[in-house]
Structures are given as structure tokens and as C-alpha cells.
């Protein structure tokens, strides 16, 4: 079996150490480790993290292979340092049966540059009217534990309650896209000063916050787990903080773009900034950063949402919502959280590997960088500074809001169970 020695890396940002990979496992961590017949990766000055885990990825397959496929999406994931992604259910057909989730799972096993764990739909066809085959999806080969109608909100309180009760039986979690649909009819961007000046339909913060408030109370009543997708407002932070102080089993995620970008960018009318939930205010951005730092927000999730060129290169009102994010996520987190002193690299490992793996029950991922553990690892050069050029993306889509922006950090190596999926910045 092959061996690799990562020499002189700062494990979780700490002291420089050598890490020996033997086959699929970390064999030794220490100083002065002998290379023997191992391939040597010189890693002085670089940060070694456990492989990143994304709890919120859109791979589009089956049905929208013009946007992304399991192959291209996992290549993008490996380029960004990810060793596992959770694939959302809004495919065509919807992943609301054991057959569809098993198809996605098998595509991941056959073609994936990282592990692919399907997320099952909460309701049939994402229509919010009838529970999908939750138990059958969990009992399938894909062993689904996370369920979401992401892209749509489970707005019926009775359906949401029944879903929480159902998944409780096998330790699953419902991941809610918090958006009260009646409050966002015709909405184009964040409701506020900018939307009023531009004359675009406003998307009020309360549309998100009201659903989160309802769902944490439902989770408390049922005694089940609820996860809040792409939390975006200061008010949502306050509700989640209150719920956690009460002992409610709620977790929450924030996207990289909501940690950096604001609704002021919409003044350009560039559809690349059109996203759901919308970009919010500077006050919201600062509240999200603080909440991620203090643990109120548990994880960073990309909401990687690829679209073909024609769905974004059009007038604002007609454009699809969403941004690609797998290949830039770690750089944005370094820029907004590490370089600002809000998080250490150990904190990054917690928010982007340990906790998302724990929430999604991703076996073998989010583990410590220590002997005997699976060799799922990410190596980053934090001193790198570069301009984002989507022409070099591994994703099939190019709808990034960071084009032309300088960001720090570059993933140089990604290892999936000891196999290099990314070597010296190039896909293996």
C-alpha cells in the first residue's frame, strides 16, 4: 500500500509536525518521522486540517447535468479541500425515494472525488403536502440521516412537526430552508434601504426569523433535532442563541458569501449576486461572524448552487438564485474569520469538518489528525494571495461572486482515505 509523508505542516495551525499516511490511515504524527519509501510532501508553513465536510451542496444530478454532475461537483469539492459533501434533494427527479438517493450515492461511489452523502427530501416532490419516504431512505444503502426541502420551506407546521417526530426514531435531522413563502412573494433582494432605492421587491428578515422561531419551538416540543440552513440575519442569530440557552437541540449554518458580501452589491444589478436567502446588510454580516466565532452558528456550509451561463447572464428579475462556493469557501473563511482574529485554524477545523460531520453522521470524517484515524486531510497554504478566476474552476458552472477579487489561502493537497485527490493544486 502507498505511503505519503507530509513533512513540517502546522497541524490545526499549531507546531510543525510530520504526518505519515500508510494506506488509508494516519500511521504516525510527530517530529523527525522517517520517510522510508513514502512520497514526501514538503509542507513548511502550510496548515494541515482534517478533510472539510460540506453539509449543503447542490450537485444537480440527476436532471440538471448542464449545471453540475456528481463528477464535476466532487472535483470542485476536492479542489476546495472537501472530502465529503451532502447532496441536496432538489434534483429532477426529486430525491424523495430510496431509489433516487441510492442513485446519487452510487454515482458518488463510482465517480466521486470525495464521499457523497445524499440528503432526502422531507416531502414528496418538495411540494410540502405529504411526507416523503423518510424511513425507506434511511434504511436504503444510502443510509440517509439528513432531510431537507431546501430551495423551498416546509411551511406547514403540521408537516414539519410530523417530520421531526419521524426522524427522531432513527436519530435523523430535518434541515430547514427558513423562508415564509407568503412574506417573500415577488421578493428580489433583502428588504431595506437598498431595495427601496432600486425599486426591487424586498425580502424581509422576518420571513426567515419567523420560521426559525416556530421550528425551534416545534423541535423542543417533539424532542427532536432541527438544523437551520444558510442563516442570514442578526435576528436569526438571536433566536438560535435563545434556543440553545434553553437546551433546544438546534444547529445552524452560515454560508461564506453571507460572511462577506452585502446587499450594497446589488446596486450593480449583476445577477451573480442574486441568491436565496439574499445578501443582507453589513450589520447582519458582522452578527453572523460573531455568532460563528462564539459557536451560536455551528458550521460553515457552502450552499454550492451551480447554474448554466444562460440562467445567470440575463436581466436581474429572470436570473436564477445561487452561487458556486466549494472552491472558494476556505479562502473566504480565512479572509473573514482567521485573518480578522475571530477564529483560529483549530476553530476552522471545528466549524468546517468536525461539527458538520457530527451533524450529518458522516462516518470517518471530521476526525482528529492523529495516528490510527482515517487519512482524510486538507493541506492549505495560508500565505498565498490570488485573484479568483472562474475559468480555472473544476465546477461545470462559473457563477461566482468573487470573480476578480483577491482572496487569501490556497488548498494544495486533499487526501481521501490516504489517496491524493488534489496534489500540488492539481486534481489527481
What does the model show?
The structure is a single chain. The protein is an alpha/beta fold and 428 residues long. The protein has 2 domains: 3-47 and 373-388 and 405-427, Urease, subunit C, domain 1; 52-360, Metal-dependent hydrolases (TIM Barrel), CATH 3.20.20.140. The chain is 29% helix and 22% strand. The strands form 4 sheets. Strands 1, 2, 3, 4, 5, 16, 17, 18 and 19 form a 9-stranded mixed beta sheet that branches. Strand 2 and strand 3 (25-30) form a beta hairpin. Helix 4 crosses helix 6 and helix 6 packs parallel to helix 7 (234-245). The model has no long low-confidence stretch (mean pLDDT 97). It comes from Streptomyces wuyuanensis. It catalyses: (S)-dihydroorotate + H2O = N-carbamoyl-L-aspartate + H(+). Pathway: Pyrimidine metabolism; UMP biosynthesis via de novo pathway; (S)-dihydroorotate from bicarbonate: step 3/3. Keywords: Hydrolase, Metal-binding, Pyrimidine biosynthesis, Zinc. The active site is at 303.
Amino acid at each position: 500500500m502507498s505511503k505519503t509523508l507530509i513533512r513540517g505542516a502546522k497541524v490545526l495551525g499549531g507546531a510543525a509536525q510530520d504526518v505519515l499516511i500508510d494506506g488509508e490511515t494516519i500511521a504516525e504524527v510527530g517530529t523527525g518521522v522517517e520517510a522510508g519509501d513514502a512520497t514526501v510532501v514538503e509542507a513548511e508553513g502550510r496548515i494541515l486540517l482534517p478533510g472539510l465536510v460540506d453539509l449543503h451542496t447542490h450537485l444537480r444530478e440527476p436532471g440538471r447535468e448542464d449545471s453540475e454532475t456528481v463528477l464535476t461537483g466532487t472535483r470542485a469539492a476536492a479542489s476546495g479541500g472537501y472530502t465529503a459533501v451532502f447532496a441536496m434533494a432538489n434534483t429532477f427527479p426529486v430525491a424523495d425515494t430510496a431509489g433516487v438517493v441510492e442513485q446519487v450515492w452510487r454515482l458518488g461511489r463510482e465517480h466521486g472525488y470525495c464521499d457523497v452523502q445524499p440528503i432526502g427530501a422531507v416531502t414528496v416532490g418538495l411540494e410540502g403536502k405529504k411526507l416523503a419516504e423518510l424511513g425507506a431512505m434511511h434504511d436504503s444503502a444510502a443510509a440517509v440521516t439528513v432531510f431537507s426541502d431546501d430551495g423551498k420551506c416546509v411551511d406547514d407546521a403540521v408537516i414539519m412537526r410530523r417530520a421531526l417526530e419521524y426522524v427522531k426514531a432513527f436519530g435523523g435531522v430535518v434541515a430547514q430552508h427558513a423562508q415564509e413563502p407568503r412574506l417573500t412573494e415577488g421578493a428580489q433582494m433583502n428588504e431595506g434601504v437598498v431595495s427601496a432605492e432600486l425599486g426591487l421587491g424586498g425580502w424581509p428578515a422576518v420571513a426567515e426569523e419567523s420560521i426559525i422561531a416556530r421550528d425551534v419551538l416545534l423541535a423542543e416540543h417533539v424532542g427532536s433535532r432541527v438544523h437551520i440552513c444558510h442563516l442570514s440575519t442578526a435576528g436569526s442569530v438571536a433566536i438560535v442563541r435563545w434556543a440553545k440557552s434553553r437546551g433546544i437541540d438546534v444547529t445552524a449554518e452560515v454560508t461564506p458569501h453571507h460572511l462577506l458580501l452585502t446587499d450594497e452589491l446589488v446596486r450593480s444589478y449583476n445577477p451573480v449576486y442574486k441568491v436565496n436567502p439574499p445578501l443582507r446588510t453589513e450589520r447582519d454580516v458582522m452578527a453572523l461572524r460573531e455568532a460563528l466565532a462564539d459557536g451560536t452558528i455551528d458550521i460553515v456550509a457552502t450552499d454550492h448552487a451551480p447554474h448554466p451561463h444562460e440562467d445567470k447572464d440575463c436581466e436581474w428579475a429572470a436570473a436564477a438564485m445561487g452561487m458556486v462556493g466549494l472552491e472558494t469557501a476556505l479562502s473566504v473563511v480565512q479572509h473573514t474569520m482567521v485573518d480578522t482574529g475571530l477564529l483560529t485554524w483549530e476553530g476552522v477545523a471545528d466549524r468546517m469538518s468536525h461539527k458538520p460531520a457530527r451533524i450529518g453522521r458522516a462516518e470517518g470524517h471530521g476526525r482528529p489528525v492523529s495516528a490510527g484515524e482515517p487519512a482524510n486531510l486538507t493541506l492549505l497554504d495560508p500565505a498565498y494571495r490570488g485573484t479568483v478566476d472562474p475559468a480555472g474552476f473544476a465546477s461545470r458552472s462559473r457563477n461566482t461572486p468573487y470573480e476578480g477579487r483577491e482572496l487569501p489561502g490556497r488548498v494544495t493537497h486533499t487526501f481521501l482515505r490516504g489517496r491524493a485527490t488534489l496534489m500540488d493544486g492539481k486534481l489527481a
